[in-house]
């Protein structure tokens, strides 16, 4: 009986292996997968990006992995990523699901939706964020206000301030930094990003059916998402009671008005989409925090940035976005921060929307696509010595800003981050406002700081903790 069972299981495994091998005939080449687990043993879940780079040296810029039972086509290098996301943008504009999020809710919202739903939500989001002045305060005014309100603990400011800007857009009002509800919200958002970047989350996302019932931190993600959804839902209810269609106060009001105009209570304008859209924008704020905070020997560059601030802005007015065009070194520093930290190494997973012929391969509709942003941001032909932090990567021989097509920290193409312009505004205004009033000094010898090793490198590349002294100018 035992022998028959073993033979039966072996036959099933071999059948599974044969089926996957036969399906791979039109997919790009890649390492041979094992039955059931695929290529998981050939991937370092603590640093997926590095594993993809190593595999690309063997199989080229386009190759196939099996993480579990499903194939993933990996695009490595600027040419392959640009060709897919820009040149074939429509075909590669699908979004593959992320099990750890899918477990909590349906794939609503701008991140996870596809097709017509995604296009309408994205169009609405871009229009609302671009035109959010609405006769009152512009988004720049909100960022300037938040920069002036920021306290001196760098971890605290860079965590709370961008999130508070977003809250003022979504909920109308900013929060006091001691507000317990606001602090809890920021804590749960940060906690989810940390968990999603852990090795455990990478395992879960590839074997959800096996791990769904096991204990682990992925259950905390679900609870935190539920908390965020319920928090926003309460705000939505408050807005519904006081809504004036002729005087929208914030993002929620605009969404409720749009919902009433199309007279629907389901996709793409239902409350579920509003909840997920609002939470997505809050998560986007955390990207600004992480972008600012990882490079902890930033103090080495302060003197040159402060000199530019003094020449262009002075000490007696707040920085504004018009100053940016006259501050090429400061701008180059911010570009280099985002390039160097490589915040989202493998991007959010895409999927092809139809059968696609790509570089003589046929990728079936629905196949997951991973695009290595690390391979673009750290390309050594475009950025000499990419492992070194150097603002000169974005300056020409005359000291003017040199833009690069390889600069893709917010992805590229149809699924490019909808909050890019806001995040870049926050980075510029927060940095210049802080350095206008403070010198920054590390509490430890800069040689002792390790800026190259993140504490986690999965969904996001997370910075180690650090401390800075803020010394008034």
TrEMBL record:
<protein>
    <recommendedName>
        <fullName>unspecific monooxygenase</fullName>
        <ecNumber>1.14.14.1</ecNumber>
    </recommendedName>
</protein>
<comment type="similarity">
    <text>Belongs to the cytochrome P450 family.</text>
</comment>
<dbReference type="InterPro" id="IPR017972">
    <property type="entry name" value="Cyt_P450_CS"/>
</dbReference>
<keyword id="KW-0560">Oxidoreductase</keyword>
<dbReference type="InterPro" id="IPR050182">
    <property type="entry name" value="Cytochrome_P450_fam2"/>
</dbReference>
<keyword id="KW-0408">Iron</keyword>
<dbReference type="InterPro" id="IPR001128">
    <property type="entry name" value="Cyt_P450"/>
</dbReference>
<dbReference type="InterPro" id="IPR002401">
    <property type="entry name" value="Cyt_P450_E_grp-I"/>
</dbReference>
<dbReference type="GO" id="GO:0020037">
    <property type="term" value="F:heme binding"/>
</dbReference>
<keyword id="KW-0492">Microsome</keyword>
<dbReference type="GO" id="GO:0006082">
    <property type="term" value="P:organic acid metabolic process"/>
</dbReference>
<keyword id="KW-0472">Membrane</keyword>
<dbReference type="InterPro" id="IPR036396">
    <property type="entry name" value="Cyt_P450_sf"/>
</dbReference>
<dbReference type="Pfam" id="PF00067">
    <property type="entry name" value="p450"/>
</dbReference>
<dbReference type="GO" id="GO:0016712">
    <property type="term" value="F:oxidoreductase activity, acting on paired donors, with incorporation or reduction of molecular oxygen, reduced flavin or flavoprotein as one donor, and incorporation of one atom of oxygen"/>
</dbReference>
<dbReference type="GO" id="GO:0005506">
    <property type="term" value="F:iron ion binding"/>
</dbReference>
<keyword id="KW-0503">Monooxygenase</keyword>
<feature type="binding site" description="axial binding residue">
    <location>
        <position position="417"/>
    </location>
    <ligand>
        <name>heme</name>
    </ligand>
</feature>
<dbReference type="GO" id="GO:0005789">
    <property type="term" value="C:endoplasmic reticulum membrane"/>
</dbReference>
<keyword id="KW-0479">Metal-binding</keyword>
<dbReference type="GO" id="GO:0006805">
    <property type="term" value="P:xenobiotic metabolic process"/>
</dbReference>
<keyword id="KW-0256">Endoplasmic reticulum</keyword>
<keyword id="KW-0349">Heme</keyword>
């Amino acid at each position: 009986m035992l022998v028959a069972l073993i033979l039966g299981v072996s036959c099933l495994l071999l059948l599974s292996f044969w089926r996957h091998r036969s399906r791979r005939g039109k997919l790009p080449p890649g390492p041979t997968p094992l039955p059931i687990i695929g290529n998981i043993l050939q991937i370092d879940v603590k640093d997926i990006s590095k594993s993809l780079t190593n595999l690309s040296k063997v199989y080229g810029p386009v190759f196939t992995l099996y993480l579990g039972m499903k194939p993933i086509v990996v695009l490595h290098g600027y040419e392959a990523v640009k060709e897919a996301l820009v040149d074939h943008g429509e075909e590669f504009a699908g979004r593959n699901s992320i099990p750890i999020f899918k477990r909590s809710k349906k794939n609503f919202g701008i991140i996870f939706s596809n097709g017509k739903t995604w296009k309408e939500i994205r169009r609405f989001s871009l229009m609302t964020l671009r035109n959010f002045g609405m006769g009152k305060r512009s988004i720049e005014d909100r960022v300037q206000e938040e920069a002036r309100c920021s306290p001196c603990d760098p971890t605290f400011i860079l965590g709370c301030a961008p999130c508070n800007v977003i809250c003022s857009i979504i909920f109308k009002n900013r929060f006091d930094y001691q507000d317990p509800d606001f602090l809890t919200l920021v804590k749960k958002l940060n906690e989810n990003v940390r968990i999603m970047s852990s090795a455990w989350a990478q395992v879960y996302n590839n074997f959800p059916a096996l791990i769904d019932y096991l204990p682990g931190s992925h259950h905390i993600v679900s609870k935190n998402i539920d908390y965020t959804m319920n928090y926003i839902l309460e705000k939505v209810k408050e807005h519904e009671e006081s809504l004036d269609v002729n005087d929208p106060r914030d993002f929620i009001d605009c969404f409720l008005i749009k919902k009433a105009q199309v007279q629907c209570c389901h996709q793409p304008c239902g409350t579920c989409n509003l909840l997920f859209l609002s939470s997505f924008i809050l998560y986007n704020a955390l990207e600004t925090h992480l972008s600012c905070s990882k490079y902890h020997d930033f103090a080495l560059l302060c003197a040159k940035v402060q000199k530019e601030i003094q020449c262009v802005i002075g000490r007696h007015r707040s920085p504004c976005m018009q100053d940016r065009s006259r501050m090429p070194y400061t701008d180059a520093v911010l570009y280099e921060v985002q390039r160097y930290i490589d915040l989202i190494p493998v991007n959010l997973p895409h999927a092809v929307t139809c059968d696609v012929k790509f570089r003589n391969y046929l990728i079936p509709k629905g196949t997951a696509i991973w695009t290595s942003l690390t391979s673009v941001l750290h390309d050594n032909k475009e950025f000499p010595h990419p492992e070194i932090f150097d603002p000169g990567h974005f300056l020409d021989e005359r000291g003017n800003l040199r833009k690069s097509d390889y600069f893709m920290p917010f992805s590229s193409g149809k699924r490019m981050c909808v909050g890019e312009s806001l995040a870049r505004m926050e980075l510029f205004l927060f940095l210049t406002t802080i350095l206008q009033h403070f010198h920054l000094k590390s509490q430890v010898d800069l040689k002792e700081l390790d800026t190259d090793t993140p504490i986690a490198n999965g969904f996001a590349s997370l910075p180690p903790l650090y401390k800075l002294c803020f010394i008034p100018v």
